[in-house]
Amino acid sequence: GDDVQIGVTDSGPGISAQNLEEIFRRFRQVDTGIHCSTKGFGLGLNIAKELVHLNLGQIDVASTPGQGSTFSFTLPPHDLATVVERFLEQFEGRNPEGSELSLVVAHVDPETDAGPCEVVDEFLQRALRGNDLTIRAGERRWLLIVAGPRQEIQDATGRIESDWRCFARNCPAVELPELKFDEIGSWMMPGQTEAFRAALRAAGRGANESADDAA
């Protein structure tokens, strides 16, 4: 589809068909017939798979014994609708029916310069858990999609606000803006998926209107 694909091909000994799935399992290594001077723990490809999964992509390998292997992974394009749909697919796949999903909008003052906004973006990308989603929906606006009920969201936003104030105090060379949060709501999945999508579209339109006002 529209995904970006990145791959690397080697001309090594290759991997047999029965070992292709084994190599991604934690603490599993396969015998390639090559004697290495260092011995690993069988974690590298498992970690790579987890990182790709957290970035809403897929990892794959194609190999021919005696000829070499091609390892590749995909990433979705930076498009709000595409990223959110991919996130929902993963969320429903790993969570039992009846799990809650909450939406929060983070934003800064419309007069904030672009430079500090980049700092805010990097901070928010690191602020949530790996299985939640932070996506930029405008120059000064972000959507935070968090697995959990409303009370947990209030606790999370309070923690992020506190961490941001501490972070801003420790950056005296740059005047960082106040970071504000609007809790949009929580929805039970998968029964309220369409209601969640509607709220997300409204939040996205709000981002566009804010950009127009700033212009």
Short description:
This protein is 38% helix and 24% strand. It is an alpha+beta fold. The strands form two sheets. Strands 5-6-4-7 form a four-stranded antiparallel sheet, sandwiched between helices. Strands 1-3-2 form a three-stranded antiparallel sheet.
Q: What does this 3D model show about the protein?
A:
The chain is of the alpha+beta class. Helix content is 38%, strand content 24%. The chain has five helices and seven strands. A hairpin with a 3-residue loop joins strand 2 (59-64) and strand 3 (68-75). The two termini are 34 Å apart.
How would you describe the oligomerization state of the chains in this entry?
Answer: single chain
Average pLDDT over all residues: 86
Radius of gyration: 21 Å
Say how many strands there are: 7
Q: Give the CA-CA distance, first to last residue.
A: 34 Å
Strand content: 15-25%
- Shape, per Cα inertia axes: globular
The run of helices and strands is EHEEHEHEEHEH
Sequence stretches where pLDDT stays below 50 over 5 or more residues: 208-215
Strand order of the largest sheet: 5-6-4-7
Count of DSSP-assigned helices = 5
Largest sheet: 4 strands, antiparallel
Derived from helix and strand composition plus strand pairing, the structural class reads: alpha+beta
User: What share of the residues lie within helices?
Assistant: 25-40%
